[in-house]
Amino acid sequence: MAESNGKGAVASVTASMMLHGRVAIVTGGAGGIGSAVSKHLASLGARVAVAYVGDPAPAQKLVTDINAAHGADGPPRAIAVETDVSDAAQVHALFDAAVAAFGGELHILVTAAAVLDASYPTLAETSEASYDAMFGANARGTFLCLREAANRLARDGRGRIVTFSSSVVGSLRPWYAAYAASKAAVETMTRILARELRGTGITANAVAPGSTATPMFYDGKTEEEAERYIAGTPLGRLGMPEDIAPLVGFLASDAGGWVNAQVLRCNGGAV
Length: 271
Known about the structure:
oxidoreductase activity, acting on CH-OH group of donors, seven-stranded parallel beta sheet, Rossmann fold, alpha/beta, oxidoreductase, NAD(P)-bd_dom_sf
């Protein structure tokens, strides 16, 4: 048997991580983690529909930067689509917009859109409006996107769904009751959907980040409170969006095709 220097294996793994010819939708795609995911998927060759809500400027800048980095003269690598993920018609229109812009099939869905009440109320203090906002974006929004993806993603072995949970699920951390419950719903829907999609070639997994240096993390916290979170992490720092994006890229690729119905905790060992 001929000996191998291992270079072929490395090249094979690298090729299996690439996403050339694939179309991805990233909800919350201009947010803290979502923007890193959008850029990373584009760097692997995917064409990305960046779904956002509210101020269009961050999404437009992100799309401009992605397209400039990957050949402004060619077909667009990314588009921005305003989408309230809690609205079924807008979610359907998002998928239509991705097909219209990039043609062909849809391959990847990443649901990074999320809402957190930065006043951190106890359950007894949580208002119905706060509860509805978190469940509307986090649970209902994910449900609507999953339903659309289950019916529209390619069934040729390249279909990938990556949802976002949180490491607060199961930690019983005070002040996160409604948020953690909405993310627990995400985990349950994702794992059940993976089983319902048996035979389609579509995988479905959830990523559960820990405390990550994003505007959502810092919102409502004093500097001292943020420092306490950092001090409690085994690696002595917050996660960065760029720590999370490669895991999503792996799950979206052929290299991650045997990972299915899992919740991957990505938190530096904090939970």
